[in-house]
Every structure is written in structure tokens, then in C-alpha cells.
Amino acid sequence: MDGSMTAHEAELQERVFAFLTDPARQQRIQRIDTHAASVFLEGDRALKIKRAVRLPFLDYSTLAKRKAACDAEIRINRRFAPQIYHRVVAITQRIDGSLAIDGDGSPVEYAVEMARFDESQTLDHLAESGSPDPDLIDSLADTIAACHAVAPPAPVGPWINAIPGIIAGNTAAFRAAACFPADAIDDLDATSRAAFERCHGLLRMRGAQGHVRRCHGDMHLANIVLIEGKPVLFDAIEFDETIASVDVLYDLAFPIMDLIHHGRPAAANALLNRYLGLSTGDHFGALGLLALFLSMRAAIRAHVLLAQLDRGGGKADLSATARRYFEQACGAIHPPAPVLVAVGGLSGTGKSDLARALAPEIGPEPGAVVLRSDVLRKQHFGVAETERLPEAGYRPEITHEIYQKLLKRAAQILAQGHSVVVDAVFAEPAEREAVKAAARTLGCRFVGLFLRADLASRLGRVAHRQRDASDATPDIAGRQEHYDIGALDWNLIDASASPAQTLRQSLSVIGPGAARPARPSIQDRLS
Fold it and tell me: If we measure between CA atoms, which residue out of 410, 443, 437, 442 comes closest to residue 424?
């Protein structure tokens, strides 16, 4: 308990905890403690009680404050998870001193009553057991984008002003822990502050555009659970409006960072790309914020784990996990130079599969943004990705306009310091030269990959497509066989074999100059 608590209040809360775990009340009761709450699982119900603590970022030191926090948790989290959050219930004390849940005595504590869910279905557990299903990642991106779309706008000033304090708080915690190299702490602090100063104007512009909103605020994987096959966000920040009123990309950065931490870079990349495709606002001009946001989120997780060390139990595991998050924060704040990779080839050569597979392998984290001409064409006409366009949608002047839009968007992303994989046929020499010139203008490395496969393979792949943005048919693929591609100065990739083999060939061509490097240890990076 916090030193400012009275002995009576501390003793009373411990009595409540003992009452809730009394075997005489329930056959099996499980207690889970965090730095700010204790959760009691019994049957199909969970009771969450705020611990009587005062921390730098929250104050639950009195019964009235804990009651207000419980009310706020219900109000805020019902927006994300109405099927989980039920009501605030009082723990009462009778005249004889006995305790009851929602009894007729005087309230001595309050709890958030929640529906119990399968704890093994939180996304941290799912990520540990294997790579999340692509449909799950798509559904997660859909859920997050939908929440952000309806989240109330928030003032930008408090959010921007809070960032230096977040960085300073993390730095102070790392120094006090005395378990990280001092040079690494100093480097993370200085580089994060420099990144903040560099991004200050962009952050303010984002606020003016309405991208600072009252978000979830704590969307790491342990706060997302699969219920009836759908991801549900829970345990949103309720104790501080400023902490939760942030840029939506900072909110998104938490699950992206955590997927990377759990060794699921492909899922992290897919989450970013799906979100960018869904969002009504234009976030392509703000990708330069990701390095700072991902680093801050990793540092916050390390900070929180360090704060849990004083509670005892599993200290070695907590310390090791905190170190991994700290190393992730150090790596993210030093992103590699962006790269433009263009994937060309006739219909059915596997361009889109390769582009999606390449993107997580190309830094900075969480990998390259994939720009696909088929998708951009559908957006140009305002139709769903899988809706077929008439032949008029493929007139040469329309195709030229689509390629111009691709190049403009690629340049916008590259200028933010983020890599791009462009997926298009690139049948015309002028199209190939234009994308190469875009990289040259921005001083970025360019890698051109042109896929080739025999006609039978291409026809078979096109014929088996389902729910795809491409309108190519076997007839169209057959006619493409007679295209005059012209001279090719791109890397030719044999795509007639498996997608895995095509990926290996492509990565060998790209080489270490573009591929996302393994994260070095702190000592290696600073040596």
C-alpha cells in the first residue's frame, strides 16, 4: 500500500481481498494482481478492485476515488466491450463486521463486475502459441479503425505536451532500475527527444486534422481478447484523459509493437497495411511518427514491468521481458533508411503474394507499406476492392493516372522515412523508369523485381483467385502473353515455383541493404 494510506484502510482492503478469496464462498477462486488492480475470477464472473495505491500516473488512495475510477471504467469500456463490462458493485460490511457482495451494509470497497472470458484467448497468448491468422489481423484492424472513427476528438496541446514527460518518466525508471547500460539509456533518451522535436510540427498538424482522439490508450495484446471469433478491446485507460487522448497512430502503435515483440512481424506489418487501407483520414504523410511511437510504446511496457518487480514473484522473468522491451525501444528509435521495392510482372505471376511476403522483411519496423495498383484503381472509382470494373476502367489514360497516383503516394511515404513495396504490372518501360526515377529523386535505394512464370502457371493462378482486387481473367492473362515488355533492367525472378521459393529468390536479390536486420543487442549497437 502507499505510505499515505491509513493503517485502517489498508487493513480493510486486505480483509476484502481475503473475503473474496475465501474458499467457503466459492469452490475455486483465482486472483490476478497488477500494479493498480486485483481481479478475482469466480465462475462466469470477474470482480476487479482498484488497489489502494497512489502512483505517478493514478491515484486510488481513497474509497471515493476508487469508486469514481470504477464508474469511469464501466462508462469508457462499454464503448469497446459492452459484452464484458456489466456494472459497479459494492462490497458491503454489516453491523457485525461481516462482508458481502452487493449487500445491505455500508460500502467498504467497490468492484467492477465483468463477464469472465477465456484468458487463453487474449492476443498475447495467441501470439505466443503461433502466428495469428491473417483473418484475425484483418478483423483486429477493422475493429481498431472503427473505434478510432467514432472516438471523440481531443485537444492536441495536452497530448503533445505530455510526450516529453513520458520520455523523461521512462528514462528515470530505467536509470533507477540499474539493470540497463547507462549509455543505452542516454542514447534512447536523447534520440527520442530529438525525434519529438523533429516531429513537433507534424504532431500539431495531425491534431488540427482531427487525428488526436480519446482512444483506448493501453492497447497491448494482453488487453485484446477473442470472443466468438472476434477481437474485443478491453481495459481501456480510465484514470487519465490525457494518457488516452492521443494520436490514433500512437494508439495503433501499441499492438503493432507488441506483435513485433512476440516475434510476429508479418502480423504487425499486415495490421499496419490493413489499417492504412481502411482509415478515412490520410495517415501516409504521418508514417515518420512511427519510429518514435513504437519506441515509446516499447519503453512504456519496459517501465511498467519494472514497476511490478517490487511485488515479488517471477522477478527473473519480469526483468528479462523488461529488457527485451527496452532493447526493442532502442532499436525502433534508430530506423534504417527507407527503400523502394517495385514488384512487376504479368497477371498470375504472384506479384501481390510476393509483395505481402516481402513487406515485413524490409525496414523500418513494422515493415514496408504495400501499394497495389489494383487496389488504388478500385479506390479511384470509389468501389469495393472485389467489385469488377468495366473495360473502360482500364483505358490507357486511366492506367497512366493510376500509376501517377502510385508514384505520388510512394514518394509521400518514402519522404517520411518509411519503405514502400509497389505492386503493379509495370509492362511499359516508361512505367518502370518512372518508379526508378522517384527513388532516385528522393535519394532512396531502389530494387526492381520483375516476375516471370509460364503461361500454364499464370492461367491456373488467375482462374483460382477469389475475393481479390484484380479483375484479370484467364483470357486477359492469355492476351498479356503477347505484350512487348521491352528491355528489362530489373532483376528477373522465376516465379513459376512455390511462393516460398519466389520469396527466397527475391530476398537474395534485395540483400542486406534493404532487408530488415535482426535487432542487435544493446552492447552491439552502441559499440
Answer: 410
